[in-house]
Task: inverse folding
């Protein structure tokens, strides 16, 4: 029973209320006792004063008469009148030798009770004793106690029953959650935690869990997709590899054999490259590199990449130009950012055609910075602009060109790692890929992760 | 050269041993970490080729141990782990170079050769000279036969690397890693383009071509005339 959190909560509340009842009872008892004692004493005091008054008006005979009369009344106090020499004159307590003032005496009725008496001296030297049995007050206390005991029992029983009833609903909802979670852990990923629509804390918890489950399912689907993509994408080069090896086996001349084996090695290298790219993306996506982030000078990085790729572009009849603002420093991983920019530049050079003009633009954007690579090639149809970042996704027309379909997936992974947003836009004509960083950091700390002699490389 | 290969994969080790022996090297093989440690500490080698993942003892632990005992032999780490952090970790443990499996045997040979004759680090050369080619690192000037050659910064770095490894083959990957600091493989032929531009500046009009292409391996700066 105590393995239910709501029931345990109810039990704790019940215990707290019960404790409150006990404390209240104790306080009531103590104050009642004090009040009763005061009233008791007041009553005896008043009686003693009344009898002393009687003495002043009627003399000793009046007092004697009054004592005798009162003792005959049932439920009256106990009295005693003793003369100055100690001889009893009248009343039950006349035999007692109580001192002046308040004192306790054994009851003359021999019942084990104590009586509390007030002894006063009358003006003629006689002593007047007035007292009463304490036991009557004990009875009252007992009834107070009994009342509180009932209240205590009531609180405990009602608290537990009420708690159980209230927690029943919560428990049922939690049981439903547990059931759903169990079903999911057993493999039913379509199950979701029921949501009541009341927008209370449990509902919000259920919604959060469901969002998390949606995310996990998406990730698992994409993992499954990647695995089948990997298997599928490797099938083609592996088939070619097999064909090359078969050809080398069947070749008649050693020149033929060498050519076939060289081609086979090329296929193996392509496969290994795909693996390397996949591993790198996976490593980037793990986010572990974020710990090694340092200020990276995007200006210097863009300059260096532009300088390194401009000659090759030129040789291919293309142009690569740079347009960079100064002091664009962001927190990041220089090596990965370099690879990201290289991938974008290579992508543009490869797909934009033989006489393409490619531009690298590094610019301020408010408090942030943007690295853009724009070309004047055929671009990417709008419907496919998101999908080109998926692993292995390739446009229909570029299937024949070499490439693993992983270049932009890596770009997306690096951007995500840096909290940057990649956008593909129509450059009319051509394609513009922008990586936008949210925040620049202080330029004075920034050193690019490129060889020290390369910044400010003159452009060719 | 006398080499030590510490590698637990028997077939791989046998293949390496055969290839390196055929290239004229004396090769010792340690199949596990303990043997590797004993040999590395006891014998004198020109280069140690050390696998990072070994039974009994981690390759990095061996490396740290031999470095701690004062052995300065250049170490080439071999690994199946291609992660960026793995590479940094390997170099920080005292490795001199890092090669990710699988690799071409030509790549391994080039790297072993490059390591073997690496000048001691304390010796800072401010000028390099190969044949009639001179490079001044402080002035950042290059002359051939006394005539000044103007180079782009990257071309300067490239030539400096080739001159430091004069007479030895340097591979495309070695150049990408050392000159460009690229630890990935760009699809574009930036190395070829830069070498060809450098060659046209350095060798044009001279009878002796200093920058040579080694088919299937890489490039070499010719030492003698």
Result:
């Amino acid at each position: 029973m105590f393995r239910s959190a709501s029931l345990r909560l109810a039990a704790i509340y019940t215990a707290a209320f019960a404790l409150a009842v006990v404390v209240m009872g104790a306080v009531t008892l103590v104050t009642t006792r004090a009040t009763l004692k005061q009233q008791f004493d007041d009553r005896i005091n008043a009686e003693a004063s009344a009898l002393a008054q009687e003495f002043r008006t009627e003399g000793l005979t009046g007092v004697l008469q009054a004592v005798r009369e009162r003792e005959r009344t049932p439920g009256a106090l106990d009295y005693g009148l003793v003369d100055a020499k100690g001889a009893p004159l009248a009343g039950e307590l006349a035999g007692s030798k109580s001192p002046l003032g308040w004192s306790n005496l054994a009851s003359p009725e021999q019942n084990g009770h104590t009586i509390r008496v007030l002894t006063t001296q009358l003006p003629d030297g006689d002593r007047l004793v007035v007292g009463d049995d304490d036991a009557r007050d004990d009875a009252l206390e007992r009834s107070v106690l009994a009342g509180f005991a009932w209240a205590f029992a009531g609180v405990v029983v009602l608290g537990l029953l009420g708690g159980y009833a209230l927690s029943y609903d919560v428990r049922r909802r939690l049981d439903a959650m547990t059931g759903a979670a169990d079903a999911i852990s057993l493999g039913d990923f379509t199950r979701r935690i029921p949501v009541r629509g009341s927008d209370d804390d449990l509902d919000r918890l259920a919604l959060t869990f469901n969002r998390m489950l949606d995310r996990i399912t998406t990730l698992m689907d994409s993992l499954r997709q990647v695995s089948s993509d990997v298997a599928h994408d490797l099938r083609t080069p592996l088939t070619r590899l097999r064909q090359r090896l078969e050809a080398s086996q069947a070749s008649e001349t050693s020149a033929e054999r060498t050519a076939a084996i060289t081609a086979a090695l090329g296929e193996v290298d392509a496969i290994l490259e795909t693996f390397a790219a996949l591993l790198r993306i996976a490593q980037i996506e793990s986010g572990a590199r974020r710990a090694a982030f340092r200020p990276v000078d995007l200006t210097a990085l863009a300059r260096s990449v532009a300088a390194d790729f401009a000659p090759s572009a030129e040789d291919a009849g293309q142009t690569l130009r740079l347009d960079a603002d100064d002091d664009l420093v962001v927190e990041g991983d220089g090596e990965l950012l370099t690879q990201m920019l290289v991938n974008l530049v290579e992508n543009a050079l490869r797909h934009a055609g033989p006489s393409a003009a490619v531009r690298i633009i590094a610019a301020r954007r408010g408090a942030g910075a943007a690295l853009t690579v724009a070309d004047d090639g055929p671009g990417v149809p709008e419907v496919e602009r998101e999908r080109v970042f998926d692993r292995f996704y390739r446009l229909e027309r570029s299937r024949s060109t070499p490439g693993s379909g992983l270049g932009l997936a890596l770009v997306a992974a690096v951007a995500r790692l840096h909290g940057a947003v990649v956008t593909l836009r129509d450059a009319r004509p051509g394609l513009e890929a922008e990586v936008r960083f949210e925040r620049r950091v202080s330029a004075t700390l920034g050193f690019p992760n490129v060889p020290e002699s390369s910044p400010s490389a003159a452009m060719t | 050269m006398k080499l030590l290969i510490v590698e637990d994969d028997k077939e791989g080790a046998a293949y390496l041993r055969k290839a390196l022996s055929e290239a004229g090297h004396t090769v010792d093989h340690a199949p596990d970490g303990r043997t590797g440690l004993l040999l590395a500490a006891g014998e004198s080698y020109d280069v140690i080729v050390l696998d990072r993942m070994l039974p009994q003892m981690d390759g990095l632990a061996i490396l740290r141990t031999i470095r701690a005992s004062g052995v300065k032999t250049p170490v080439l780490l071999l690994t199946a782990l291609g992660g960026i952090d793995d590479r940094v970790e390997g170099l920080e443990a005292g490795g001199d170079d890092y090669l990710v499996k699988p690799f071409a045997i030509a790549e391994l040979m080039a790297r072993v050769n490059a390591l073997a004759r690496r000048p001691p680090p304390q010796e800072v050369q401010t000028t390099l000279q190969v044949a009639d080619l001179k490079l001044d690192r402080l002035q950042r000037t290059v002359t051939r036969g006394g005539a000044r050659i103007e180079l782009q910064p990257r071309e300067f770095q490239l030539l400096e690397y080739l001159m430091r490894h004069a007479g030895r083959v340097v591979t495309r990957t070695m150049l990408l890693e050392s000159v460009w600091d690229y630890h990935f493989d760009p699809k574009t032929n930036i190395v070829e383009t830069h070498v060809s531009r450098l060659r046209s500046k350095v060798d044009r009009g001279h009878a002796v071509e200093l920058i040579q292409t080694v088919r299937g391996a890489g490039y070499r700066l010719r030492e003698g005339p």
